[in-house]
Write a structure and sequence with these properties.
about 230 residues; alpha/beta; Rossmann fold; seven-stranded mixed beta sheet; binds S-adenosylmethionine
Length: about 230
Protein backbone atom coordinates (compact mmCIF):
# COMPACT_ATOMS: atom_id res chain seq x y z
CA UNK A 1 0.00 0.00 0.00
CA UNK A 2 1.26 3.50 -0.83
CA UNK A 3 0.36 6.97 0.38
CA UNK A 4 -0.64 7.77 -3.19
CA UNK A 5 -3.23 4.95 -3.15
CA UNK A 6 -4.60 6.15 0.21
CA UNK A 7 -4.74 9.78 -0.96
CA UNK A 8 -6.47 8.77 -4.21
CA UNK A 9 -9.12 6.81 -2.30
CA UNK A 10 -9.86 9.57 0.18
CA UNK A 11 -9.60 12.39 -2.37
CA UNK A 12 -12.42 10.60 -4.18
CA UNK A 13 -14.40 10.14 -0.96
CA UNK A 14 -14.07 13.89 -0.28
CA UNK A 15 -15.19 14.73 -3.84
CA UNK A 16 -18.22 12.45 -3.40
CA UNK A 17 -19.12 14.04 -0.06
CA UNK A 18 -18.40 10.88 1.94
CA UNK A 19 -16.43 12.91 4.50
CA UNK A 20 -19.77 14.07 5.94
CA UNK A 21 -20.94 10.46 6.23
CA UNK A 22 -17.82 9.61 8.26
CA UNK A 23 -18.56 12.54 10.59
CA UNK A 24 -22.09 11.23 11.14
CA UNK A 25 -21.05 7.60 11.40
CA UNK A 26 -18.06 8.10 13.71
CA UNK A 27 -19.37 11.05 15.71
CA UNK A 28 -21.02 9.30 18.64
CA UNK A 29 -18.11 6.97 19.47
CA UNK A 30 -15.57 9.77 18.92
CA UNK A 31 -17.46 12.03 21.33
CA UNK A 32 -17.56 9.26 23.97
CA UNK A 33 -13.77 8.89 23.70
CA UNK A 34 -12.95 12.62 23.54
CA UNK A 35 -15.06 13.18 26.67
CA UNK A 36 -12.73 10.77 28.52
CA UNK A 37 -9.43 12.11 27.18
CA UNK A 38 -8.84 14.46 30.12
CA UNK A 39 -8.01 17.35 27.80
CA UNK A 40 -7.00 20.27 29.99
CA UNK A 41 -6.70 24.02 29.40
CA UNK A 42 -3.91 24.76 26.97
CA UNK A 43 -3.45 21.17 25.83
CA UNK A 44 -2.22 20.63 22.28
CA UNK A 45 -3.80 17.71 20.43
CA UNK A 46 -2.89 15.97 17.17
CA UNK A 47 -5.76 14.44 15.14
CA UNK A 48 -4.05 11.74 13.09
CA UNK A 49 -5.93 11.04 9.84
CA UNK A 50 -8.31 13.96 10.37
CA UNK A 51 -10.39 13.63 7.19
CA UNK A 52 -12.47 16.81 6.88
CA UNK A 53 -11.32 17.91 10.34
CA UNK A 54 -14.64 17.57 12.20
CA UNK A 55 -12.95 15.94 15.22
CA UNK A 56 -10.02 18.38 15.03
CA UNK A 57 -12.54 21.20 15.49
CA UNK A 58 -14.14 19.45 18.47
CA UNK A 59 -10.70 18.87 20.02
CA UNK A 60 -9.78 22.54 19.55
CA UNK A 61 -12.78 23.63 21.63
CA UNK A 62 -12.77 21.04 24.40
CA UNK A 63 -10.90 23.14 26.96
CA UNK A 64 -9.94 26.80 27.25
CA UNK A 65 -6.78 27.52 25.28
CA UNK A 66 -6.61 23.99 23.84
CA UNK A 67 -5.44 23.74 20.24
CA UNK A 68 -5.60 20.97 17.65
CA UNK A 69 -3.74 20.08 14.48
CA UNK A 70 -5.20 17.64 11.94
CA UNK A 71 -2.94 15.71 9.57
CA UNK A 72 -4.13 13.75 6.54
CA UNK A 73 -2.57 12.39 3.34
CA UNK A 74 -5.59 13.45 1.26
CA UNK A 75 -5.32 16.99 -0.17
CA UNK A 76 -9.05 16.99 -0.89
CA UNK A 77 -9.87 16.09 2.73
CA UNK A 78 -7.62 18.90 3.96
CA UNK A 79 -9.26 21.30 1.46
CA UNK A 80 -12.68 20.29 2.91
CA UNK A 81 -11.30 20.90 6.41
CA UNK A 82 -10.23 24.41 5.40
CA UNK A 83 -13.67 25.09 3.90
CA UNK A 84 -15.47 23.89 7.03
CA UNK A 85 -13.10 25.70 9.40
CA UNK A 86 -14.36 28.37 11.76
CA UNK A 87 -11.74 30.99 12.61
CA UNK A 88 -12.77 31.21 16.27
CA UNK A 89 -11.64 27.60 16.79
CA UNK A 90 -7.97 26.90 17.54
CA UNK A 91 -7.57 24.21 14.88
CA UNK A 92 -5.45 23.89 11.75
CA UNK A 93 -4.95 21.19 9.15
CA UNK A 94 -1.94 19.90 7.23
CA UNK A 95 -1.37 17.50 4.38
CA UNK A 96 1.09 14.92 5.69
CA UNK A 97 2.00 11.29 6.26
CA UNK A 98 1.65 9.42 9.55
CA UNK A 99 5.12 7.98 8.98
CA UNK A 100 6.92 11.35 8.58
CA UNK A 101 5.04 14.01 10.50
CA UNK A 102 6.28 17.52 9.76
CA UNK A 103 5.89 18.46 13.43
CA UNK A 104 8.43 19.14 16.19
CA UNK A 105 9.44 16.65 18.89
CA UNK A 106 7.36 16.71 22.11
CA UNK A 107 4.86 19.23 20.66
CA UNK A 108 1.59 17.50 21.77
CA UNK A 109 -0.12 16.51 25.03
CA UNK A 110 -2.57 14.16 23.31
CA UNK A 111 -2.96 12.25 20.06
CA UNK A 112 -6.46 11.36 18.86
CA UNK A 113 -7.16 9.18 15.85
CA UNK A 114 -10.54 7.99 14.59
CA UNK A 115 -10.71 5.12 12.14
CA UNK A 116 -7.32 5.86 10.55
CA UNK A 117 -4.37 4.05 12.17
CA UNK A 118 -4.94 0.72 10.43
CA UNK A 119 -4.28 2.47 7.09
CA UNK A 120 -0.65 3.14 8.11
CA UNK A 121 1.75 2.22 5.31
CA UNK A 122 4.43 1.52 7.95
CA UNK A 123 2.79 0.95 11.32
CA UNK A 124 6.01 0.71 13.37
CA UNK A 125 7.25 4.00 11.93
CA UNK A 126 3.85 5.62 12.60
CA UNK A 127 3.92 4.52 16.25
CA UNK A 128 7.50 5.85 16.53
CA UNK A 129 6.33 9.20 15.10
CA UNK A 130 3.45 9.34 17.58
CA UNK A 131 5.91 8.83 20.43
CA UNK A 132 8.29 11.45 19.02
CA UNK A 133 5.70 14.24 18.80
CA UNK A 134 4.11 13.46 22.21
CA UNK A 135 5.40 15.18 25.33
CA UNK A 136 6.73 12.83 28.04
CA UNK A 137 3.65 11.60 29.94
CA UNK A 138 1.37 12.51 27.02
CA UNK A 139 -1.12 9.98 25.73
CA UNK A 140 -2.73 8.64 22.57
CA UNK A 141 -6.39 7.66 22.15
CA UNK A 142 -6.88 5.59 19.02
CA UNK A 143 -10.24 4.27 17.78
CA UNK A 144 -10.58 1.47 15.21
CA UNK A 145 -13.58 -0.32 13.71
CA UNK A 146 -11.37 -2.65 11.62
CA UNK A 147 -9.72 -5.15 13.97
CA UNK A 148 -9.47 -8.89 14.45
CA UNK A 149 -12.51 -9.48 16.63
CA UNK A 150 -14.79 -7.31 14.43
CA UNK A 151 -15.23 -9.99 11.78
CA UNK A 152 -17.94 -8.12 9.89
CA UNK A 153 -15.32 -5.53 8.87
CA UNK A 154 -12.72 -7.96 7.52
CA UNK A 155 -13.83 -7.45 3.92
CA UNK A 156 -12.85 -3.76 3.97
CA UNK A 157 -9.29 -4.33 2.76
CA UNK A 158 -10.53 -6.07 -0.39
CA UNK A 159 -13.47 -3.68 -0.85
CA UNK A 160 -11.17 -0.66 -0.73
CA UNK A 161 -8.27 -2.30 -2.57
CA UNK A 162 -5.92 -1.24 0.24
CA UNK A 163 -3.67 -3.52 2.34
CA UNK A 164 -4.99 -2.54 5.76
CA UNK A 165 -3.33 -3.56 9.06
CA UNK A 166 -5.62 -6.22 10.56
CA UNK A 167 -4.70 -7.00 14.18
CA UNK A 168 -6.54 -8.46 17.14
CA UNK A 169 -6.97 -6.42 20.31
CA UNK A 170 -4.02 -8.28 21.86
CA UNK A 171 -1.84 -7.70 18.78
CA UNK A 172 -2.59 -3.96 18.88
CA UNK A 173 -1.56 -3.86 22.54
CA UNK A 174 1.66 -5.70 21.68
CA UNK A 175 2.42 -3.29 18.81
CA UNK A 176 2.07 -0.27 21.10
CA UNK A 177 4.20 -1.95 23.79
CA UNK A 178 6.92 -2.87 21.27
CA UNK A 179 7.01 0.77 20.11
CA UNK A 180 7.72 1.93 23.69
CA UNK A 181 4.27 3.04 24.87
CA UNK A 182 3.26 2.31 28.47
CA UNK A 183 -0.01 2.12 30.44
CA UNK A 184 -1.73 0.51 27.47
CA UNK A 185 -5.46 -0.08 27.92
CA UNK A 186 -8.10 -1.27 25.48
CA UNK A 187 -11.87 -1.10 25.58
CA UNK A 188 -14.82 -1.53 23.21
CA UNK A 189 -17.05 1.48 22.64
CA UNK A 190 -20.58 0.95 21.34
CA UNK A 191 -22.37 3.63 19.32
CA UNK A 192 -25.15 4.77 21.68
CA UNK A 193 -27.50 5.42 18.72
CA UNK A 194 -27.65 1.73 17.78
CA UNK A 195 -26.84 0.23 14.35
CA UNK A 196 -29.05 2.71 12.48
CA UNK A 197 -32.32 2.36 10.60
CA UNK A 198 -32.73 -0.87 8.64
CA UNK A 199 -35.27 0.75 6.28
CA UNK A 200 -32.71 3.42 5.35
CA UNK A 201 -29.77 0.99 5.04
CA UNK A 202 -28.01 0.87 1.68
CA UNK A 203 -25.38 -1.81 0.93
CA UNK A 204 -21.94 -0.38 0.13
CA UNK A 205 -18.15 -0.86 0.37
CA UNK A 206 -18.24 -1.21 4.13
CA UNK A 207 -21.33 -3.35 4.72
CA UNK A 208 -22.77 -5.62 2.01
CA UNK A 209 -25.92 -6.27 4.05
CA UNK A 210 -27.79 -5.22 7.18
CA UNK A 211 -26.58 -8.26 9.17
CA UNK A 212 -22.94 -7.13 8.70
CA UNK A 213 -23.88 -3.59 9.81
CA UNK A 214 -25.52 -4.97 12.98
CA UNK A 215 -22.59 -7.32 13.71
CA UNK A 216 -20.07 -4.46 13.43
CA UNK A 217 -22.21 -2.34 15.75
CA UNK A 218 -22.37 -5.16 18.30
CA UNK A 219 -18.58 -5.74 18.17
CA UNK A 220 -18.09 -2.02 18.84
CA UNK A 221 -15.11 0.22 18.15
CA UNK A 222 -11.75 -0.75 19.64
CA UNK A 223 -10.39 2.12 21.76
CA UNK A 224 -6.68 1.92 22.54
CA UNK A 225 -5.18 4.28 25.09
CA UNK A 226 -1.39 4.34 25.50
CA UNK A 227 1.05 6.79 27.06
CA UNK A 228 4.57 8.00 26.38
CA UNK A 229 6.74 7.33 29.45
CA UNK A 230 7.00 10.41 31.70
C1 LIG B 1 -11.47 6.40 7.29
S1 LIG B 1 -10.80 8.01 7.15
C2 LIG B 1 -11.20 8.72 8.75
C3 LIG B 1 -11.15 10.22 8.75
C4 LIG B 1 -11.59 10.90 10.02
N1 LIG B 1 -10.77 10.53 11.16
C5 LIG B 1 -13.04 10.63 10.29
O1 LIG B 1 -13.37 9.90 11.25
O2 LIG B 1 -13.88 11.16 9.54
C6 LIG B 1 -9.00 7.74 7.32
C7 LIG B 1 -8.21 8.97 6.96
O3 LIG B 1 -6.83 8.71 7.27
C8 LIG B 1 -6.03 9.20 6.22
N2 LIG B 1 -4.80 8.37 6.17
C9 LIG B 1 -4.75 7.03 6.10
N3 LIG B 1 -3.48 6.58 6.11
C10 LIG B 1 -2.70 7.67 6.17
C11 LIG B 1 -1.28 7.86 6.24
N4 LIG B 1 -0.45 6.82 6.22
N5 LIG B 1 -0.82 9.13 6.34
C12 LIG B 1 -1.68 10.18 6.37
N6 LIG B 1 -3.04 10.06 6.31
C13 LIG B 1 -3.54 8.82 6.21
C14 LIG B 1 -6.87 9.08 4.98
O4 LIG B 1 -6.47 9.96 3.94
C15 LIG B 1 -8.28 9.33 5.49
O5 LIG B 1 -8.70 10.66 5.32
Amino acid sequence: MTHEAIALTFDKWAQEGRDAGMETGHGDVARQVIDQMDIRPGHQILDLGCGNGWATRILGQVAPGAGAVGVDASREMIARAEELHCYTIRARYEVGKFEALDLPDARFDRVFSMEALYYAVDLDQTLAEMLRILKPGGSADIVLDFYGEAEATHGWSEALGLALNLKSEEEWRAAFAAAGFVDIATKRVIDSRGPGDEAAFEPGDCFPDWAARVAAHEAGSLWIRAAKPA
